[in-house]
Amino acid sequence: MKYDINKHQLGKLVGTITGKYQTFAPQEIGGKVVLAEVKTLSNLRLFSRPTVLPFKKILFPDRVEFGKADGTKSIALVGLHVCDVHALHIFLRQFVDSKLVLRRDNILIVASECEPDINCFCEVFGANRLDGFDIYLQKEEGDKYSAYTNSQTGEDILDEIDIISAEEQSNPRPIKHDDDDFEYSLEDTISRRADFEDFWQRIANNCFGCGACTAVCPLCFCFRQEYKNNIDGSSKICLKWDSCFAKGFSEIQNRNDLRPENVDRIYNWYHHKFVRGKRELGRFLCVGCGRCIVACPANLNIKNILSALDEKIERRINGGNKNS
Amino acid sequence: MKSKDPFEKFKIVKKKEVAPDTFLFTLEGNLNFEPGQFVQVMVPKIGEATFAPCSSPYNKKKFELCIRAVGNTTNQLVEYLPGEEMLVRGPYGKGWPEGALIGQNIVIIAGGMGIVPLRPMIEKLIKYQKEYKNIYILAGCKTPEHLLFSKDFKQWKKKFGYVKIAVEKGASGWDGEVCMIPKIIEKLKIDANKTKILMCGPEVMFGYCNEKLSEKKIADKNIYISFERRMECGIGLCQHCNIGKYLVCKDGPVFRWDIIKPELNK
Ligand SMILES: Cc1cc2nc3c(=O)[nH]c(=O)nc-3n(C[C@H](O)[C@H](O)[C@H](O)COP(=O)(O)OP(=O)(O)OC[C@H]3O[C@@H](n4cnc5c(N)ncnc54)[C@H](O)[C@@H]3O)c2cc1C
Ligand code: SF4
Ligand code: SF4
Ligand code: FES
């Protein structure tokens, strides 16, 4: 269903959601757009640039207690870009049996239209497909908006707002160009480390190993265990985000580091995203959100790196504009 | 839907120093594990460490953990005393093969602590001994003092006939071999087409041993090895333990050499 609403009704919609769910949405705080719990509607930035950190900071906060996730509470994630919605589904699949993270049924997903920037490349992985949300918000002329529903839960919420008009058959504007061919040679190319050692080494030569890319990526979910020791002498195991670039990540007994060099680590990052992740979850662990490109202090650009590894990606990203 | 505490408490009923810095703990309770699987043991406020239960999988009243002190968690664990409890979660992972071994010669190759996850398997081999051809045990360690389960080796020698132990450095009274494990593999005479290898030990030894095995025409797919990697979650989520596209905690720790070899160094 498509519903036409105005600015006032949009506010009411968010208000209704906030009344029913613990709600998280992009907000401008200290000049940055961050995903945070909605306390007031005045900072909301529903149609914004990507949030600095993605939904993972909410679904699996740092220092969550092991075995103590409460799977029954319901939350709403509002203002996710479509690429993040795709990432969210992959992320939930990773943790589906673990009880560490809420399940899809306990999350209301309200996506909003994005403005593609120079860094994002969701179309390469089909993460521009408008799918997987309960409600999708689109900005129209003036202070008009469209809300598209994709589930009963979404429709029930819209039913509580007095809308201008509704249409049965109507689709949101596509984001970027829709493709259906996502057969790449990436898996094979990245599997063959030895054949590309020099390639990875040249990247590693610039990488600081700081792990910023892993911190911002919606599909980097490595974690470790840590102890929260209290003054009263009690202690709890907590799960904490980890980075595969961190020292000790692959260390075994006697301080034997199985990935001692930066090249081992950056290779492992790509290998997890495009080989191991694909094997485990059936999807690449990248939706092309571009966050890691913005975050990297060494100007390493995953878009360019993937383009160099796969001609079809190269064509898709550069649209055949390469001088030859 | 609060999930239950994954840790179970097991009381220590016996503790014995079996080699330098290495202790065998007997714990009361039923762990219900398959040979080659592992558990995570937690020391509150310090950390967790990974161990392979090393007793017979058929003893449903007690089980044993053999722990060598090498770092933060294990240094604390070896201080535990009988009467105290250990916090254990698991068992996790895929252990040694079963069906594939029927009708085969089986060669156990264990370096150092590598005998630990193999000991329950040997118990299993004893239980179903009629189903196999010959069973060979090859083990190696630093010095005779480091040999774990020396009494068992005598038993196994009686049961299987072929037990060879190599130490790197001999001592007075040692009548076994003084060499490295690949040397004792060299001496093995075996029908390569009807043989399966079960191996565990420090990773450096795999390459050398498998070279010798391949000289004996034993195919990579007939070699099963248990690997050590950094474990955090033990249940396939945290990504610390991968070897290439496989996770040691979930797809292993036992892998077929033909499958895992191309993934090493990735
Ligand atoms: C399948 C399997 C079975 C095993 N079976 C046995 C057995 O039966 N008996 C036995 O004695 N040993 C066994 N081991 C080895 C044993 O798990 C290690 O010796 C033990 O974990 C060392 O822990 P530690 O804390 O004492 O050592 P440490 O040296 O303190 O820690 C181990 C390494 O992990 C790193 N590390 C510590 N904490 C973290 C963290 N939170 N995040 C990232 N890195 C960290 C450290 O830097 C260090 O290099 C087995 C290992 C595996 C994988
Ligand atoms: S790898 Fe980079 S572009 Fe891909 S999803 Fe992660 S942060 Fe976004
Ligand atoms: S953000 Fe850039 S420099 Fe830092 S680890 Fe990632 S690729 Fe390397
Ligand atoms: S130990 Fe966490 S994935 Fe294997």
Would you kindly provide a written description of the structure presented here, covering whatever features stand out?
The complex is a heterodimer of chains A (324) and B (266). Chain A has eleven helices and 13 strands. By secondary structure, chain A is an alpha+beta fold. Chain A folds into two domains: 2-160, no CATH class; 187-317, no CATH class. In chain A, helix 6 packs across helix 8 and helix 10 packs across helix 11. Chain A starts with a strand and ends in a 6-residue tail after the last helix. Chain B has 266 residues and is α/β, with parallel strands linked by helices. Chain B has two domains: 8-92, Translation factors (Elongation Factor Tu (Ef-tu), domain 3, Beta Barrel); 98-263, Rossmann fold, CATH 3.40.50.80. Chain B contains six helices and 15 strands. In chain B, the strands form three sheets. Chain B has a seven-stranded mixed beta sheet, with helices on both faces. Chain B has a six-stranded antiparallel beta sheet with strand order 4-3-6-1-2-5. In chain B, strand 13 and strand 14 (246-247) form a beta hairpin. The radius of gyration of chain B is 18 Å and the shape is globular. Chain B starts with 7 loop residues before the first strand and ends in a 6-residue tail after the last helix. The mean pLDDT of chain B is 93. The A-B interface holds A 66-72, 94-95, 98-100, 191, 193, 221-225, 227, 229, 235, 237, 242, 244, 249-255, 258, 267-268, 271-272, 275-276, 279-280 and B 1-6, 42, 44-48, 70-71, 74, 228-230, 232-233, 235-240, 242, 244-247, 265-266. The structure holds flavin-adenine dinucleotide, iron/sulfur cluster (SF4) (2 copies) and FE2/S2 (inorganic) cluster (FES). Residues 231-234, 236-241, 247, 249 of chain B line the site of FE2/S2 (inorganic) cluster.
